Structure to design on (429 residues):
């Protein structure tokens, strides 16, 4: 679609520090992003500036230095750890005679490689097209009419106008399909809400160990790797939490500092699981020196998708990489679990995690003793057995069953609704 240089896998990386930036992007994170994209780094060019240059983003001298490095290393692509304007991208390509990619384009490329499901591929394509639409202006070198010459001149569309129209049509088509997917997800959520099944959503900075934790808890076998954005498509599994019962656990895409807005918008259907969760399990890499900044970055994205008011349990993961950390639960002033220290990879503290989930999800528990007549024993005992709430039972001489039960209030209310007044007749004061 573009009259632009072909991109390869041999890259020169560019990282500029700006004086006014309070949270500078780590160079190591940028290198991990490049590695995750399967690109081979030939050389890294760094520098400092007060503000971006309007023409080349970097200064003219630095731009020429990068061009010289490209020629000497025979690089096929230059990747910037910053967002470039379409004009800056084109000016740099013209100077360096190779493809130039910015941070947003790099993340989009990684997402395109990781997408596995139909929905994931549609979301990535939508984000790519939205990113591309701002770059159409300088994408073509032949902006004349499509047809020219004697007998063919006319007021037809330019090639650029045709491209824009086709792009708009494709975006509309993708949005229609994603709307259908969103409705299907909404039906699933409504069904879970009707059954009052709590939902846990794993959130966290990319590469914090969410998928490893997900696999440890569910034995789902989800792809997990020490790389950024290893998970893209959401995975849902049912787990059992003591005193709560069945709970749906969702593994979601990892967040990153300066996550492109187009990506957040495109992945709205996926992130809806996070918005409507009963509890967010915020997984943090405890061994990362910048874990506090990573927590802030995740909270920013949660605010952007209106999920910042959902109750959150912080899980400090990868404690096996620390010298003095042990599995433990930290509580707030009211005694509620606030932080759990675990290692999903080394299987440390998983029992404490479940203990914390039980306390955060169970809410009010109901305990009572029932005296069930012989005619209703089979039916009622079966229901209590399915709810796994029986703590003690014994038969009386007249054939009645005395049974002690303990279950979450939601299950109790649901049972009362189904059984009506009959259940009340069995309760012993």
């Amino acid at each position: 679609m573009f009259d632009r240089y072909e991109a390869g896998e041999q890259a020169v990386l560019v990282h500029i520090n700006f004086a006014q930036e309070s949270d500078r992007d780590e160079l190591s994170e940028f290198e991990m992003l490049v590695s995750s994209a399967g690109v081979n780094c030939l050389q890294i060019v760094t520098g400092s500036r007060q503000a971006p240059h309007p023409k080349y983003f970097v200064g003219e001298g630095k731009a020429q230095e990068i061009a010289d490095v490209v020629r000497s290393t025979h690089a096929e692509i230059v990747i910037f750890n910053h967002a470039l304007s379409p004009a800056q991208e084109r000016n740099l390509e013209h100077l360096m005679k190779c493809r130039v990619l910015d941070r947003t384009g790099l993340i989009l490329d990684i997402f395109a490689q990781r997408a596995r499901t139909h929905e994931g591929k549609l979301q990535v394509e939508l984000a790519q097209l939205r990113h591309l639409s701002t770059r159409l202006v300088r994408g073509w070198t032949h902006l004349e009419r499509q047809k020219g010459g004697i007998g063919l001149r006319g007021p037809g569309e330019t090639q650029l106008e045709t491209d824009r129209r086709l792009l708009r049509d494709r975006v509309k088509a993708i949005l229609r399909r994603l709307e259908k997917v969103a409705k299907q997800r909404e039906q699933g959520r409504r069904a879970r809400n009707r059954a009052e099944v709590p939902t846990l959503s794993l959130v966290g900075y990319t590469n914090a160990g969410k998928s490893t934790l997900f696999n440890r808890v569910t034995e789902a076998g989800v792809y997990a790797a020490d790389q950024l954005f290893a998970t893209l498509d959401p995975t849902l599994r049912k787990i059992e939490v003591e005193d709560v019962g069945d709970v749906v656990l969702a593994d979601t895409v990892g967040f990153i500092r300066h996550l492109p807005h187009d990506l957040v918008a495109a992945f709205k259907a996926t992130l809806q699981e996070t918005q409507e969760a009963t509890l967010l399990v915020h997984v943090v890499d405890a061994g990362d020196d910048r874990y506090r900044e990573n927590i802030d970055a995740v909270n920013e994205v949660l605010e952007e998708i209106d999920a910042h008011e959902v109750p959150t349990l912080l899980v400090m993961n990868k404690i096996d990489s620390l010298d003095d950390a042990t599995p433990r639960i930290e509580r707030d002033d009211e005694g509620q679990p606030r932080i759990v220290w675990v290692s999903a990879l080394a299987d440390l503290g998983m029992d404490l995690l479940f203990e914390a989930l039980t306390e955060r999800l169970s809410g009010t528990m109901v305990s009572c003793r029932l005296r069930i007549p012989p005619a209703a024993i089979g039916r009622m005992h079966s229901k209590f057995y399915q709810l796994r709430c029986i703590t003690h039972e014994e038969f009386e001489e007249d054939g009645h069953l005395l049974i002690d039960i303990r279950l979450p209030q939601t299950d109790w209310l649901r049972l009362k609704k189904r059984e009506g007044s009959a259940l009340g007749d069995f309760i012993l004061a």
